[in-house]
Amino acid sequence: MKMNRIVLNKTNKREAGNFLLFVFLLPYVCACLWGHVGEETRQIVSDKKEIQQAEAVYKVEAVMDWGIWELPMEEYLIYRLALVMPRGYAEEAMKAQAVLLRTELVSSYRETGSRVLRVEESGLNRFYGNGQKEDILSDCRKAVEETEGFYLVYRGEPVQASYFKVSNGHTRDAGEVWHTDGCPYLAGVSCEQDKASTEYSSVVNVEKKRYIELLRTRAGNDYQEDTLWQGGLFSFDTAGYITEVVYTEEGKEEIRIDGEDFRHLFGLNSAAVEMERNEENMLFHVKGVGHGFGMSQYGANCKALNGEKYDQILKEFFLGTELAKFE
Description:
The protein is α+β, with helices and mostly antiparallel strands and about 325 residues long. Helix content is about 45%, strand content about 20%.
């Protein structure tokens, strides 16, 4: 009987020890268990957040020679800026151009209601997979990053973000040329500094035969050579750009050629021209480069070199506008 009590006491002590060990280890077991579950929960939340952020990104699908290159909007702007802006221009001029390019995209996103835009952009081929181009892109990257999200608005709406290379000394009034009051911010402004550009003036000589041949691509073969060579009623806007050329001949349909179409027909840098005709040639004396609406890139660079910031530059070319943030 005494022996049985001794065994019983040993058994009770062993069980008590096991219980105490369990109680001692319980907090650690729970911590490990719940910690692991917590990590999984945090990972799920993190993954979900990343998916939501990816879905929220606005993208551009650039149609290349080899296929489609998909880029986030801000990254696409870096390459686009490198394509349209002359190298070596001042930082604030680069920023102004970056804002205009972003404004174009914002307008398109709003019009389509989509977060993905497809654009024809074969010019990006020279950048794809070419790490050596970073020296070209570094200034563009900085301009885009330091203006991230900003675009230009007039009364809360994205503007018609027009830009061109060099003016003839004055930008054009959209209301006068397009016969609309929808772009009051695109009023003509003085841009005298553009006259210092090496690209300000050019001369194009077109032989009489070639001149008539090119006009026939628009007028057909019905018109007489003399009408095409010596005729034509040229209309100009107040900035000095051709707005329209009209050819008429009795009993025949009137031919109207838009000023920009006319200048492209003869390979002119701009439609700001004076014409000089002799017996065998037509001389075009051309001023500026581009259509003349909105921001002159050369003029913007001059303003930047004079210490103006990009927002100030934009407001001088686009009257009554302000910056907004694209979210």
